[in-house]
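Example complex used in Figure S2.
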Amino acid sequence: MRDRYQQLVTTAPGRFLARRVGLPEPPHLRRHTPGDPLIPGPVILGGAPAGRLVKVVGPMLAAAGVAVRELGPRAEERPGGARPHALVFDATGITRSEQLVALHDFFAPQVRAVAPSGRIVVLGTPPEHCADTREATAQRALEGFTRSTGKEVRRGVTSQLVYVTPGAEEGVESTVRFLLSGRSAYVSGQVIRVGSAEVPPPDDWERPLAGKVAVVTGAARGIGEAIVGVLARDGAHVVCVDVPSAASELAEVAAAHGGEAYPLDVTAADAPAALAGHLRSGVDVFVHNAGVTRDRTLAKMDAARWEIVLNVNLTSEERINDVLLGENVLRPGGRIVATSSMAGIAGNPGQTNYATSKAGVIGMVRSLAPTLASRGSTINAVAPGFVETRMTAAIPLVIREAGRRMNSMTQGGRPIDVAETVAWFASPGSAGINGEVVRVCGQSLLGA
Amino acid sequence: MRDRYQQLVTTAPGRFLARRVGLPEPPHLRRHTPGDPLIPGPVILGGAPAGRLVKVVGPMLAAAGVAVRELGPRAEERPGGARPHALVFDATGITRSEQLVALHDFFAPQVRAVAPSGRIVVLGTPPEHCADTREATAQRALEGFTRSTGKEVRRGVTSQLVYVTPGAEEGVESTVRFLLSGRSAYVSGQVIRVGSAEVPPPDDWERPLAGKVAVVTGAARGIGEAIVGVLARDGAHVVCVDVPSAASELAEVAAAHGGEAYPLDVTAADAPAALAGHLRSGVDVFVHNAGVTRDRTLAKMDAARWEIVLNVNLTSEERINDVLLGENVLRPGGRIVATSSMAGIAGNPGQTNYATSKAGVIGMVRSLAPTLASRGSTINAVAPGFVETRMTAAIPLVIREAGRRMNSMTQGGRPIDVAETVAWFASPGSAGINGEVVRVCGQSLLGA
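Predicted assembly (896 residues):
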């Protein structure tokens, strides 16, 4: 399956437009299909001396059926054999800036060999957990490396930095699996923190949500529909929520994925109480995905446009969280995931209302994280960039094309890319990921 | 004085190029000249009910000779009289997302009237200092508003969010002055935290560094030369440091600003000791500005290119900090300011070495901040975007033009814009600003 840009560039005007602005054809991105191996080729694993993660990640990957080739520090040559599909580097042994050259020594000889849709993953120690300022400085420097590499390598190769709190080594598996797999096709240039938490041993990595109950708002179409599909694929029973006017689409989505439809206006005064009643046996995963836009420049924006956007995208979520937590509707070990947006990070002209609401979602996730942690639960946000939906299809062609191409994948993402990221947060294996905001934007150039 | 882009668009090929890519002529930016009033027109000041800053900032501005018009909450009309040059809104009274509509109510009727090179400043409470998650969420939402407004308003108008820790209200003056003045011409879309600190009463806001000793590395040209000029203008005696091969340029810069030249290779093994010896009577302001690039894609980068960039841009600064702090060369109340870069925030292809070093500078500043605070001192970083220097002049025209235009000011910045930001950090009035990274990028679209 090709995305719409790829469809476009196979038409005559599309080819003309692409050539006109000097755009190459975007690479095909490897995405996950059930039954696929974790990664279709070997992983080269290396590390700076005295790192604490090589010895954990190596056996972890081998047990997952991945061909792992371990490389000692300061290897100047790349090992022979099949083209690597991932370069994973444990940088936790780096305690001073002088030692950062180990990144160069590991990656420079190998980076060109990485297969299309390959993966670069650097593992580090969160600067706030470092022993001294020299170590914190060197560890913070890693971010400049992974973000630059993501912009440089192209060919659908993603690049990420994963900060692992000391003691949380075993909890890194769900994240390493996500990042190496096709599930993270459109996630690049991210910094992800894995903290300490009790991580239950996984039963089946292909159905981590078996037996769980999930709720998805805004489920009738677009990104919400894709989230329903992926959570159901991963084993969850999904309660699909959307406004009553979308009830027939909602019923179709629910039926297609063996879930149930629950039409509800999340902004209604009694919506939180109604949800609590409907979910009285409890919920494991709650996805705040309902969202609206009412774009206008600030000078032309009436108060109604401001208020509906803030209410749907932010306040209604806060009110629902109150019952999820206050009335223990969210089960122990539960997950809340909210949809933020690139606009909430970088701001966007004509969207002061939308960007304010989506920046607020980031605040909500960060400020609620300690409360969730105390219940063995988590709350996180996805921040989509340019994702091919009905909403983005309505953007004028040239602006749409610029939005699509201004990222390291040189194409728009798909709703499933956001959904896979939600599912990774929702997984029992991701208990150590809390208060995080992960962009699903192909490493968009736009940011804060 | 016009910048080089403006010179370019007055030539025939320049006009052709600008029209070709649909670029309007960039606005002229108001910059500060000694003797200028703080701001050339009235400031409209408003706030949500129960805010704690209107009553501090109003008298502060009035005492500084600014015409302040206070506006009650939910004012639907803009006051009559001259065009406002700034809209300042105290959002500290906002404790729930429903109250964010106060932003709309204050700004929507007035935003179009703001004069060119006008200012939008929103004052908030740092989310980490809020009483509960609802307040933290609403306060974090402010960032989406100011970043969107900065991208929307244009005409050289800047937009910032200033988070003021409860109790630090009186310490906000240096920051409010900086943001309203022409000193911050190229600073927009920033989030600045003002924390609690003992702020000495200012003697003369035009010469805040009178009697102080400052050191600037990389002082022979470009941004470093501009920093020397601004610190000297503000009253400091400046010790100008650069490599011995630039000694003659360095001597000229020092002479032009009444400072002294001190040729030194900051990467030399004995450089920190030599500096400590040279500065044995102490230093008040140390500016780590020396920096080099050695661009190559990672696959083509030799270890030497990596090492020199990391050494000059990061490790040498760490080694000098060791003597500044370990041997008490930095006087009580001292300031360290380091030059990071947009590349250190967003990453940049072909600059894995440079971006790693500049991301490390951010780590250095953040991790050293508590140590500095314990001495009544601060450490902060500026992160320049596209600034017109010899370095950027070497970029090929089309890429250079894109870099210049992809920001809310639609033009490149000048070295003095970075220098003014350094001087604001260096000011005794900025004692509450510590561990911050402020971009001088005209609100570049590029970010993380």
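Residues 303-326 of chain A form the longest helix (24 residues). Residues 1-5 of chain A have pLDDT under 50 and may be disordered.
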